[in-house]
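Suppose a classmate hands you a notebook page containing two proteins, each written out with its sequence and a corresponding row of structure tokens. How would you begin to make sense of it? This section walks through that situation. The first entry is reproduced here exactly as it would appear on such a page.
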Amino acid sequence: MFIFDTDIYTNVLRKIPSETLLSRLKKLPRRDQFTTTITIGEVYYGLMKASNKTRLLKLFEDVLLPRATILPFDFSAAKKYGEIRSFLEKQGTPLAHADLQIASIALSMNMTLITGNLKHFQRVPKLFVENWLIP
């Protein structure tokens, strides 16, 4: 099962999305596609600033969102968040709040995070990450 990070959705919404990403998504059953409430908030924030937001909102809401189960930032994720944040700060390598929440949800659900931002997320111990944006 896979959790999609914000940059995965924003890539699909581009005029020319990653062919590698589209190919992988087409083969992945809906039951294995997840995202987080954090990602949804970040995507909506970006769409509200877009010049063509009406078209992008329709694509996001009618095509992308129905394919994924949306996971909340719950108690289990909150515990993971505290552990990860403390560890990374002690290492001198903190992560942004939203990235920490997304990673915490992925860890608490034992899922692989799909992101183009491997550099940030690879710092999180025991988090499985994959980049589907590149061949």
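The notebook's second entry, a different protein, reads as follows.
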Amino acid sequence: MSLSKVKELLEKVYSSRLPDQDDLVYLLGVDTQQEISCIFDFADSVRKRFCGEGILLRGIVEFSNYCFRQCFYCGLNASNLELTRYRLSQEEILESVKLLANSGIKTVVLQSGEDKQATVSWMAELIGKIKTDFNIAITLSSGERPESDYKKWFACGADRYLLKIETSDKKLYASMHKGMSFNNRLKCLKILRRLGYQVGSGSMIGIPGQTLEHIARDIIFFKAEDFDMLGIGPFIPSADTEFAKAPRGEAQLVLKALALTRIVTRNTHLPATTALGSLEKDFRPEGLKAGANVLMPNFTPLAYRKLYSIYPGKRCLTESPGTCNPCMEQMAFSTGRPIDYARGDSLKKKRED
């Protein structure tokens, strides 16, 4: 593979309305350090042009690990009888939100499994309290819900919703989501967009059965859907799942997918995910150098944090939330960029749907 061809293809996928799958597959498959660095440098220049230098912070509060789904990759799956389940009270959640807001962070991500006890009215009340007490944006990440739930939460003040597709391939999706509908996932994403949410999705890299062609099609899907935010991280096998013995995703492939997603989507918010920081080393600084512009410090109370075990080896399980900002600032400093304490709303133009 030649460096000149890599440069040529990078310009091509950057300028295309929709990139060519074969071009993306080629770029995902490059294996020399010089070629990989070329991709990362190009992505970093696109990030700088469309997103600026600042690194945004989103504070995560994992409020429940109950889930009735049986996803083959997730340690929260309903079949995992070894996991101690928890559900935070509104008071505990509000205390965590107060801590992150007092740290200067202006977005909270309320994340959970698909918990039937997190009723529409309970969530609506919580959203209203957060909006009343704190001047911050609210991102929800609680899976598939009826349109009426999404509508009520938006009316109460929720700003964003994260619903990862994990893969845009229908057959691959079915191979790891028992009893779930790919078409319903797509439907939910469209409903969220129509209701006015800033919408996030994303994918895993290294899923059993996944090919470079699958990843390339994901990137094309992300471009076509024009999401406001995307989370791209490695598959990490969990012992209490169907995929327990599968190999984990490779960091370099995750970083290449992240970089190419930046190049193709331009101004979509892209985090250096916690999963990317939970491999054989913390690869989040590399993610920030390959196009990412968001970090997501964890503000889940320490007593519960280990129990939100989507995958093993998760980063930041024992650190006090009060230490998050200095850690994030140190990581940002290592990349030569500052932390941006703005809300970090979507950089996409307002759509007429």
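A careful reader of the second entry would note: The chain has one domain: 3-340.
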